[in-house]
Amino acid sequence: MREDEILELFAGIKSGRVSEQEALKYLKNYPYEDVGCAKIDTQRALRNGAGEVIYGEDKTDDEILRIAEAIGARRQNILITRTNERVFKRVRETLPQAEFNARGRVISVKFKEPALTQSYIAIVSAGTADGAVVEEAYETARFLGNDARKFSDAGVAGLHRLIANLEQIRGAKVVIAVAGMEGALASVLAGLVSVPMIAVPTSVGYGASFGGLAALLAMLNSCANGVSVVNIDNGFGAAYNASLINHL
Questions:
Q1: Is 112 exposed, middle or buried (0-12, 13-18, 19+ CB in 10 A)?
Q2: For the chain, which ranges sit under pLDDT 70?
Q3: Buried b (16+ CB within 10 A) or exposed e, 83-101
Q4: Are the C-beta atoms of residues 177 and 151 closer than 8 Å to each other?
Q5: 114 cis-preceded (ω within 30 degrees of 0)
Q6: What is the pLDDT of residue 14?
């Protein structure tokens, strides 16, 4: 439940358009709705400005669908991360406006398109192999009402590719740097921009990258100022934090 929904309910009760019984029915599942497999936090949008997001990995198809239908019944926008096309087809049967980003494994359902910010988030990735994390971050940022722009395959192995896009990247209010291997992109880029940077280590790399641990440690130990780091492959978390900054 969002703040504007509560105010609308108050206005409806005050004007007589909404009866006490109707208001009671509306508030019955507040502050959470128990759907059996999950307790949906209906108060989160009011507290945090954004509703609950469904993390799809390790949930069954039926569980994801049940949660999505409960959120959709309130006509609240829905974001499902770490999911697949099979789930998407089932969600679309109930919520035909659902869209699927296959590379990012993200389903979004929008009952109302959010107004995008005038400022933008730059999502810069080191290589094509980082694309899944980039797409997760991009879909999350857009879902949360941000203008987001992707600058792909701009790693330090070919520094000219990064420099070619530098002016546009510098125009962003916040930058997300996505990189695997040795994770050097975050340090290099942070030394070239004056805005906050959120670094996302990815699990891309050969054996000694240890599934992204090498990039994570490199980013945590960056000598450049203004770098904060999220967990390995966490495009969602990076975009959520970037959105908080971009909406300031």
A1: exposed
A2: 1-4, 9, 23-29, 46
A3: bbeebbebbeeebeebebb
A4: no
A5: no
A6: 79
Which amino acid type is present at position 145?
G
Tokens of 190: 């942070």
- CA dihedral of 89, 38, 58, 135, whole degrees rounded to 10: 60
Coil, helix or strand for 204? coil
pLDDT value, residue 9: 67
Model confidence, pTM: 0.87
CA distance 111 to 51: 13
Instruction: Give the pLDDT confidence score for residue 1 in this predicted structure.
Output: 57
Helices assigned H by DSSP within the chain: 3-15, 20-27, 44-48, 61-73, 85-94, 131-143, 159-163, 166-170, 185-190, 213-220, 235-246
What per-residue confidence (pLDDT) applies to 199? 98
CA gap 172, 158 in Å, rounded: 22
Helix (H, G, I), strand (E, B) or coil at 14: helix
Q: What is the pLDDT of residue 3?
A: 66
Sign of the torsion angle spanned by Cα atoms 16, 20, 25, 31: positive
Phi-psi region of 136 (alpha: psi -120 to 50; beta: other; left: phi over 0): alpha
Q: Which two tokens stand for residue 180?
A: 């695997």
Please tell me the predicted confidence (pLDDT) of residue 19: 80
Give the amino acid at 216: L
How far, CA to CA in Å, does 192 sit from each of 130, 163, 218?
Answer: 21, 9, 18
| pLDDT number for residue 10 | 77
DSSP result, 159-196: HHHHHTTHHHHHTSSEEEEEE-TT-THHHHHHTT-SS-
What pLDDT is stored for residue 26 in this prediction? 65
